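Notes from the pairing session

We agreed to fold both candidates in a single pass and log them together. This is the raw record for the first candidate, unedited. Please don't reformat it; downstream parsing expects exactly this layout.

Candidate A
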Amino acid sequence: EFPEMGKLMLPRVLSLGALQFQLLIFDKVASGLTEGSVSVNAYARNFQSVLVGVTGIALAQSAYSLLGQAAAWKNEKLFKKYLLWGVGALLIITIPGSIALVLLSPVVAKIMGIQSIALFSSALLAYAVSIPFESLNHLLLRSYYATKHTLLPAIATVAGAIAATAVSYGLSAKLGIISIGLGFTAGQIVLLIGLTLLFPKVLRRVRG
């Protein structure tokens, strides 16, 4: 089974490389903006990722074994049930959570000692829009992995990374640090669209 594991792992490794390249581009864009933009962008992204971690990643991880079990049983109805339940739960949690995150951004900036509160709030607002999309992507990615699909989500991830870097770089001159958060959001939307369009292939494998 080790050769099969390596085969399934390789596309995921390559897609993670694309995400690391995306982070490098974000830092490059931020370094060309006003002083402190690199730090502010890092703070905004890290703060945004907390909500994604405790909702999207946590729920996706808990649903992964259930999705894998339903896929192994070739039970498409149960597979869809778990997936739809996860989507509904994430939307109910992440949308209000994103709004609360933005409202609390000035308080968080003061607690963390960030000088440019307005700049941080703007950056976090752009990142907060991505929270529902990124959380859903974590769940959808696990549904692919449950059916031993790794190449298709890797392709979608690379496409999302390309979109993210293009948007952030293209809008940086006009929108400043907001462009990075918007780029990240655009990348997550592209990834979500790609995973959704390719999803029939997952269902075909569940049906057997």
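Candidate B (folded immediately after A)
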Amino acid sequence: MSVNLGQLAATTLQNYRRKMVDNIFKKNVLLNHMMENGGVEYEDGGRQIVAPLMYAENETVMAFSGSDNLDVTPQEEIDAALYDWKMYNVAVSFTKEDELKNRGKSAIIKLIKKKIINAEMSLRSRLNNDLFNGAASNTKEITGLQTAVDTGTYGSIAGATYSWWQSYKETTSEALSIAKIRTGRNTVNNGEGGGMCSIMVTTQTLHEKYEALLSATLQINPVVSKETKRLGDAGFSAIQFAGVPVVFDEACPTGEFYFLNTENLKLTIHKDANFEVIEKAEPANQHVSISHIMVMLNTTVDRRKSLGKLTAKTA
């Protein structure tokens, strides 16, 4: 029986798409935390992603009595960070040779599923790596945490110029300590308009170092938090500090320890390019059937001071 390989591949990919998207977010610890705690949002377009932000207090607040004149001085306390959209694509292709070597619909379906799972794994790995390291050498990538959680330019705003657009960053080259973790957490939790630290992400080496530092006297909150338990149940190695999950990700750069929250840090995805499946016509000069999986997104932050990191830390 003749099989339309391209049509069958596109249909199978469309049917698998929902599971594929779930796997991308469920199988990487930071993406998993963001998806389950409001850290992923969807926009419907625009040349750039615009994130309104508050950078100063309204100074017209005053105590008064009777007929006192009220302060009506115009205030400039609202600005916006601008983020460029970034696009990723992975192609799932099949040759006529593939079709001939895998005769019959069941054999071809098995081949298609293997290729789709491989594409999913490849896309997931790249996105997770770029979530930490992206845009360092390729401006087409999403902006990773190394840039977002820092003090330099991000979102078209110069952190070097505006202190309110600087993350907490501690750079002393030394062994990881409870004291530095405590200071980092307390610092990012300070101030109005920011979310509380909801997750700490580091390397496997520093995660094991922190675990070794734990003792009964250092467990500020020995009761396991709901999110720490959820991450553990999802298969991730999650311990905690003062109720905040401490996890590791293989993509996290050596020596770094992040303090993040899903209120101020988002992964923003274009709702019409949310891992969409695109079928292409067979090339005129090749016997190849191709389908694409495409996503348009970027990391966005609306209050940088609510995020932080330790760098140059060792075990």
